[in-house]
Amino acid sequence: MRTDDKPSAATLRVTVMGGSQVGKSGPGNMLYKCVLQLDGIPQPMEIMDTSASCEESSDAHLQWADAFVVVYSITEKDSFQWAASTIQELSERRPTARVLLLGNKSDLGHLRDVEEVEASTLALRYSTHFSELSTAESCEAVVDALDSYIKEIRSLRHHSGVNNGNVSPKQRKMSVTRMLGSLIGRHSPPPQPITELIVLDKEERSKLVRCSRQI
Ligand SMILES: Nc1nc2c(ncn2[C@@H]2O[C@H](COP(=O)(O)OP(=O)(O)OP(=O)(O)O)[C@@H](O)[C@H]2O)c(=O)[nH]1
């Protein structure tokens, strides 16, 4: 684990949204804080994990975040329709925010209810990133999808003149398995809010995802 105090990018706030049982995480709305190590540069993150059962403050989530991850299950057409209407709403209410569309549960191909081409067409229409993956199966796919998404946002921010901030050198150690677990869909106690910071590079995060799946 690295705990260097290099200047980092400004904090990136991401809201994770999706229909019920698509594999976002656990019950309730949770806020996770962490620092990802991307290309050697610390990237402070605040991740709001919203629950389908929590209707309240959805407007607040829309305004709070810089970027959005919209998750659906490839086995549930309804969840895809929910994702499609959410992306449309985001395009109207947060037109400059970057969106990542994630089709989860790709390990259940025999139960597929949403064709990949439907989702990629939707993503193309709204210029969002898109990946199909299985949070239960491929940790690399999850890490790769998030990495490239976050790197693009950081680059866009850089070019649009958003100033870099400095992250506190006091980056304390703690587990972020729950943050990563929120996109893995493992059975475990519900995640709790995380208020401490940790710096993880890609390899470390992949290992962590593997470990958290074994719990
Ligand atoms: N087969 C498979 N199951 C998954 C995958 N991801 C999550 N699940 C399962 O899907 C179910 C729902 O996962 P959750 O993470 O609770 O879903 P959620 O989106 O947080 O659900 P809400 O609490 O309703 O918002 C659980 O039984 C998970 O184990 C996956 O990639 N493949």
From TrEMBL:
Keyword terms: Hydrolase
> Which Gene Ontology MF annotations are present?
G protein activity; GTP binding
Assigned EC number: 3.6.5.2
Note the coiled coil stretches, chain numbering: none
Q: Which Pfam families match?
A: Ras (PF00071)
Reaction catalysed?
GTP + H2O = GDP + phosphate + H(+)
Q: Which SUPFAM superfamilies match?
A: P-loop containing nucleoside triphosphate hydrolases (SSF52540)
Which family, according to UniProt? Answer: Belongs to the small GTPase superfamily. Ras family.
Its recorded name reads small monomeric GTPase
